[in-house]
Design a protein that fits this description.
The protein has about 120 residues and is α+β, with helices and mostly antiparallel strands. It is built from four helices and five strands; from the N terminus they run βαβαββααβ.
Length: about 120
């Protein structure tokens, strides 16, 4: 797993915190964003501004503080991004989604595209 540089501005932290206070849902787009907001999370599910590097490794049984949903790609097997998706959505449900994606063929024979520029899934 690589470290990643991130920045969560005061403006975005305030927006996220106000969204949570209004009892609305926060949907994170991408595993890097998830890692960033979880790095900036405080006890109680709020975030604080942060700029720097993170090497946070999120794996099953992780207690997510901020996000209620996540959009992410179909990642490589055994990658840290796939492990994070499993931590968020549950291992069995994510593996079922992968199996479905691998076996699905559209009316014109099209298949799901995997990896960075592939199809995505919404995990609620």
């Amino acid at each position: 797993m690589d470290s990643e540089q991130m920045e969560l501005t005061e403006k975005n932290a305030t927006f996220i915190n106000n969204t949570k206070l209004a009892d609305k849902k926060v949907c994170v787009v991408g595993t890097t964003t998830m890692k960033a907001i979880e790095t900036a999370a405080t006890i109680g599910g709020k975030v604080k501004p942060y700029a720097g590097w993170t090497n946070k490794f999120i794996f099953p049984n992780y207690d997510f503080q901020v996000a209620d949903a996540m959009i992410t790609n179909f990642h490589k097997p055994l990658s840290s991004m796939l492990i994070m998706a499993c931590a968020f959505g549950g291992f069995d449900l994510i593996m079922k989604a992968y199996e479905e994606a691998l076996n699905w063929k559209g009316p014109k024979g099209e298949k799901y595209r995997f990896l960075t520029y592939g199809d995505a899934m919404l995990i609620i």
